[in-house]
Amino acid sequence: MVTGKPAILEGDQDSLGLLGFAEKGNDAFHCPGFTMPAKGEARDKAGARGGSGTPTPTSRYVPPTGLFYTDGMTGVAALTLPGAAFEARLREVLRSKVEFIELIGEDLVAAGGKRARPTVTFLAAQALGLGTQDPRWPAVTDLAACVELLHSASLLHDDLIDDADTRRGQQAAFRRFGNVVSVMSGDFMLSRLLTLLAGMPQGAALTRAFGETASLICEGEVLQFQVAAYAEYSLQPYLAVIHGKTAALLELAASAPALLLDAPETQREALVTFGREYGLAFQMQDDLLDLAGDEAALGKPVGGDLREGKATLPVLYLLEGSHGAEVREVLERRAAAPGDVARVRELALTQGAAERTRQEIRRRSHLAVDALAALPPSTARDALAALPRREIGRTR
Fold first, then answer.
1. Of 169, 146, 130, 127, the residue nearest 89 (C-alpha)
2. Strands 170-171 and 166-167, bridge-based pairing
3. Which of 37, 117, 232, 272 could form a cystine bridge with 255, CB 3.0-4.6 A?
4. Going by C-beta distance under 8 Å and a sequence separation of 6 or more, which residues neighbour residue 228?
């Protein structure tokens, strides 16, 4: 069992947060408007970058940036997280001759975010023993970029489905440019990642893994609608939905470096398990906070899942108990009656459903940490282990 307790102390990248990165969907489906950007805006933003066209594998070593240090007493151990070099590579990959596509790509880079999934990829590669001076490190950067592109493409599509107003503090792309431009820009990102994968070592295996993950993401999104339509309120569909929507991409982020580096199968499977269990724990915590969290800490109202007819884990536990019929009625009317959300929240807190969910989050988190025992001890392994541990007490 992994028992190390890293002290992640310094770093100026958002990726140091490593929390609060799961997006959630809903059932809205509307045609948005279109806001015309200023002429030449993409070229102005691009500045001296210039150029466009097909991305090419990195041919030279780029010194890593975005170091953070562990061991507060000595500062002797350093890890590399996605930083300026990663952002520059992402910007390069997203270049396009088409201004609207360039604008959406530029917004993706400028908005930043915690880059949680690329961070997992960086840490997994280092936990497998790869150093940033290794000539294969640029391929890890490209692999992390591919993970982020798959994630970002799914968000462009999700925002339209969710009828979202904003993304990372900016106006959602489909509201600004319209449905077609937003969806096709997401498809453009998918084409770019395929081009990158084709030039990598183990390209065929990596392409297959990315394709399978993309399928799971799509299936999870559609299954969510199906579960609500058929009122399939049970554990198995719920796990399938959150695996597709959240855990599958973390599985890929963690295990893709093992494919790239042709690591032993036992280590690849360990990283698959780590990513899956970490992702499930994260989404379960997100779902619990949506019902039983503190609105001031979350910065948004609770009960969003109930209003969308989603039976998350604490609600499923309530359906098993003496108040099951009452909770089912709330789900079926999508918490439309006054007091519905407050009532289900009260039941979750008083009938043990919230605590049972916390126990399951702890169990999944421990499974994720335990899986890492198949990797050699290292600071990177400890940093990976810290991620699911933090889920246990996350409050926003």
1. 146
2. antiparallel
3. 272
4. 27, 308, 309, 310
pTM of the predicted structure, to 2 decimals:
0.80
- The residue written with tokens 């049972």 in the block is 356
Instruction: Say how many C-beta atoms besides its own lie within 10 A of residue 361's C-beta.
Output: 24
Q: Which amino acid is at 203?
A: G
Q: How many Cβ atoms from other residues are within 10 Å of residue 133's Cβ?
A: 9
CA distances, 257 to each of 34, 144, 159 (Å): 40, 9, 29
CA distance 105 to 39: 16
SS3 90: helix
Distance CA 68, CA 55 (A): 29
Please write the tens of the pLDDT for every residue from 1-42: 554 433 332 233 455 455 232 333 322 222 233 333 455 554
User: 231 pLDDT exceeds 80?
Assistant: yes
Residues 86-131 have pLDDT tens digits of: 999 999 998 899 888 888 777 777 666 788 999 999 999 999 999 9
Non-local CB neighbours of 220 within 8 Å, separated by 6+ positions: 240, 241, 242, 243, 244, 245, 248
Does residue 69 sit in helix, strand or coil? strand
Please check whether residue 309 is in contact with residue 27, taking contact to mean a CB–CB distance below 8 angstroms: yes
Given a contact cutoff of 8 angstroms between Cβ atoms, the answer to whether 69 and 9 are in contact is yes
According to the model, what pLDDT value does residue 299 have?
81
117 vs 207: CA distance, rounded Å:
17
- pLDDT average, residue stretch 164-180: 60
> Residue 281: CB partners within 8 Å, gap ≥ 6?
361, 364, 365, 368, 388, 391, 392
Residue ranges and CATH numbers for the domains of the chain are 1-16+42-200 (1.10.600.10), 230-396 (1.10.600.10)
Block residue for tokens 């709330």: 330
Give the number of residues written for the chain.
Answer: 396
pLDDT of residue 173: 58
